[in-house]
TrEMBL record:
InterPro entries: Cys/Met-Metab_PyrdxlP-dep_enz, PyrdxlP-dep_Trfase, PyrdxlP-dep_Trfase_major. It comes from the Bacteria. This is Aminotransferase class V domain-containing protein. Keywords: Pyridoxal phosphate. GO terms for biological process: transsulfuration.
Length: 498
């Protein structure tokens, strides 16, 4: 039978289990970012997960026992383990829409006759809105207490607040929102994915009914687990909409090993030596800083977190680009292609827009293993002390692209037709990319026949960043489209003649 188990000899050689399938492991100097593996799981959590798989258990009974324990630890009325913070938002939304009524659960996403609106402050709009919208609700954005008061009504299922954007003394603080929502019994959900577990819970104390956390971030639990704690009736209604129960949330499954791993992470929160963890992170950042500042033109700054989210330090590394002719993006890419692969700043994640053309990177030490700080210091030192020559497009534009172009994109399983509208000034390109979701501004360059076009749509939490690279020939152009986290596609465009 095929196996991906790494043999002892491969382990001795320092190989990873991922090498056995041709996938490169990496050093995570970005922090608890999902796409590069998120958190370094606590050893106690791994032991709990290993123990949990040895026996079977009825999942509802298990979650009931966990709910009692979570209430005891967190001080909240109840808690459940979900398949991540995003899933916690989804099931909480479904729970507020349905109230735990199975008939309504089976009606989702058709919300006819049901509460079908979620109010969200403008400062809370993000890509994670999609977790609530999956239920079929309409997001209602508000900016002031007056707008919130006008938006509240019989169709309001819930109010969603992003903890990292909320200000305790702002015009739409959680306290102000709660003062308007409580008399109407409209529940408030706070997304606190990257926070730790303060007791008493600061969000519940300010009026939140439920709070969602990620297991794969500061809590150092399983990446595919999260936490929903708060008011017992709403949290239990949310659990009913989730797996193992059939209907809308069946796919949001969390296994017995993840449930016990997440519970262990919560129990360990009070036992961990947070001060010692912090001292270790600072020492690693200082080690890297000391080495890099020996390079002429390099300066570093230790950045400390503000607020409750992502409570870890990071090292800001910047350099004199006249001495070290590399942009931040180029250094990120060079480290990403390094052996071992090192992820810093935004490497390995979505396509940044605009790209980091400044001479700086950020290094987060919170997910390193002992010794990896030395690898990072050595490799970044080598790059900045002896920067490679990177060939960049140059020369005048071969032609003028101004006008309307018909664009065809070959995605992995579909072909779509869109348009470019260009205005060109020398090598610089400006205009509009009319895509399927909506129009967005574009910028780009044309050097000789080499074209680069970037477009971005980031309204209402949507995150679409496209980068077209290719070659122009008369009235045609084609090449490769980088879709960031969504992979790559092929594209071609033809100038439209009238």
């Amino acid at each position: 039978m095929p196996t991906t188990t790494v043999s002892p000899s491969r382990k001795v050689l320092g190989k990873s289990i991922y090498d056995s399938i041709g996938v490169r492991p990496l050093i995570n100097a970005r922090g608890t970012v999902t796409v590069v593996g998120a958190t370094r799981v606590l050893p106690e959590v791994q032991v709990a997960m290993d123990e949990a798989v040895k026996d079977f258990v009825q999942i509802d009974e298990l979650m009931n026992g966990v709910g009692l324990r979570l209430a005891e630890i967190t001080g909240a009325e109840w808690g459940v383990v979900t398949s991540g913070a995003s899933a916690a938002i989804t099931v909480a939304t479904a729970g507020c829409v349905t109230g735990g009524d199975p008939d309504k659960i089976w009606q989702i996403p058709n919300l006819d006759g049901m509460k079908d609106e979620v109010i969200i402050p403008s400062y809370s709009r993000s890509a994670y809105d999609a977790a609530a919208k999956a239920v079929g609700v309409r997001m209602v954005e508000v900016n002031t207490p007056e707008e919130l008061k006008a938006a509240l009504g019989p169709r309001t299922a819930m109010i969603l607040v992003m903890a990292s954007g909320a200000s305790e003394d702002g015009p739409l603080s959680l306290k102000i929102i709660a003062a308007l929502a409580k008399p109407l019994n409209v529940p408030i959900l706070v997304d606190a994915a990257a926070e730790g577990l303060e007791v008493p819970n600061p969000h519940i104390a300010q009026g939140a009914d439920m709070v969602a956390y990620s297991g794969g971030k500061y809590l150092r639990g399983p990446q595919c687990a999260g936490l929903l704690i708060g008011r017992k009736d709403f949290v239990q209604a949310s659990w009913i909409t989730s797996a193992p129960h059939h209907g809308f949330g069946r796919g949001l499954k969390v296994g017995r090993e993840e449930i016990m791993g997440m519970l262990t992470a919560v129990e360990m929160w009070k036992k961990r030596d947070h001060a010692e963890e912090w001292r270790t992170w600072i020492s690693w950042a200082n080690y890297i800083s000391h080495h890099l500042e020996q390079v002429p033109g390099v300066k570093t700054e230790l950045l400390l977190p503000k607020g409750r989210s992502n409570r870890s330090p990071s090292l800001h590394v910047k350099w004199d680009i006249s001495l070290i002719p590399l942009t931040g993006q180029e250094v990120e890419e060079l480290l990403w292609e390094n052996n071992p692969r090192i992820a810093v700043s935004g490497a390995g994640s979505y396509l940044p827009f605009p790209p980091n053309m400044e001479p700086n990177i950020r290094i987060n030490p919170s997910q390193l293993a002992a010794g990896e700080e030395r690898v990072i210091a050595k490799r970044v030192y080598e790059l900045l002390s002896n920067p490679p020559q990177i060939e960049k497009p140059s020369g005048p534009a071969a032609l003028d692209l101004s006008g309307l172009w018909d664009l065809e994109i070959q995605f992995v399983a579909s072909v779509v037709n869109q348009t470019f509208m260009f205005e060109q000034k020398g090598n610089e390109i400006f205009g509009t990319h009319h895509a399927s979701f909506g129009p967005r501004d574009l910028t780009g360059t044309l050097h000789g026949n080499d074209v680069l076009i970037r477009s971005s749509y980031t309204n209402e939490g949507v995150r679409l960043n496209f980068q077209f690279t290719g070659v122009v020939s008369n009235d045609n152009m084609d090449g490769i489209l980088s879709l960031g986290e969504y992979g790559k596609a092929e594209w071609n465009a033809k100038r439209r003649h009238y």
